[in-house]
Amino acid sequence: MRRPLVLSLSILFSLTSACGGDDVSRLADIEPTTRGGIPGPAGPRGEPGPAGPAGQYARIKVVPPGSTPERGGENLREALAAILSPSATEPWLVFLEPGVYDLGGEALHLRPFVYLQGAGAGLTTVRSHSAEPTFVAAADTEVGALTVENMGGSPHAVALSTPSANFRARDVVALAHDGVERTVAIVSWGVPGAPDSQGVEFTHARAVASSAQGVVKGFDCQDCSVRLASSSFLAQGGGQAFGIAVHGGSLEVWDSSAEGLKGTEESIGVDARGSSHVSLVRAEARGTQGPVSTGMRLSSSTATVRDSALAGTGLAAHQTRALDVSRVARLTYRVDVERSTLVGSTQVVRGAEGYSIFIGGSQLRGGQVEGNGMVACHGSYDENFTSPPAPACP
């Protein structure tokens, strides 16, 4: 085994002087500073370098929950009131620590460029019993990782109200219950006749609305343009229960579910009217346990359904349909259904004059295809996998 060669400092000094001459600094000339040496005077200060890129948020506020839920609500209001001039170049992030923030009987109005984030939907809850929505959002805002709740008691109980422009919500739970006339978990509103808005999206959201009376909706779209992804919307009870209701809007539903449950008059999964358009992709629309239960109902509106399920289910005496259409204006409307499952005992599909319904590669289970208008099936089959020649439907 070879031993490592250890050279003394004197040998190293000799080698460096012999090899480098005057051009190589001698180690002995380097004044030690780490073993008792005294540093020399500081050199001149250099010019400051260029500023780095701006962060996503220019300002951050952290809000504690307080000793009581009511104190937490006051902390939240005070934190938002202290933000004087949020802007696109100086947005604010307001972070809510785990806890309950009770706003009492007053709503919370968010301003543009103020982003509200909690510690998680199961950890941070903001609630109220306001006659207005608990949260009234604005354009150019975001809400995430929290629960928003309206505890009801007023004629209208709404958890979250959003504009139909430049708004996003992620990992949000919206709960609304016990409104007297109207109970809605989330409502998104737009301006009639305005150009389609972009950038409005709910991802990983869960909306639940429940009441013993009035109209109950999980998601209510009024002239909105919204994309829903990986979310669920449930309306339970009331006279009319709508998982998703659309009026004059454009709605995309991806990898999500909508259910109307136990309405005393009707239960509808997705209800669209007033020249709306609804697109379902890998989604479920169910009306359950109502005297009239329908998966998707369209009135003077169009729809595309792909890789999805439409189902109306209930008791034997109930009217249950997968797809039900009707027309108010004397226009023509089209519905395309591909690679989907349609379930209804009274009728699987009920058509109407002015509607053209095309169903391809889908399963139709339960009742028949009836009504006016045109319904054409291609490559579709019933629960026994019987497929009649096109364009007949099972």
Automatic annotation (TrEMBL):
Positions of the UniProt region annotated as Disordered: 24-55
Keyword annotations of the record: Signal
Cross-referenced InterPro entries: Pectin_lyas_fold (IPR012334), Pectin_lyase_fold/virulence (IPR011050)
Top-rank taxon: Bacteria
Residues making up the signal peptide according to the UniProt record: 1-20
UniProt-recorded name of the protein: Uncharacterized protein
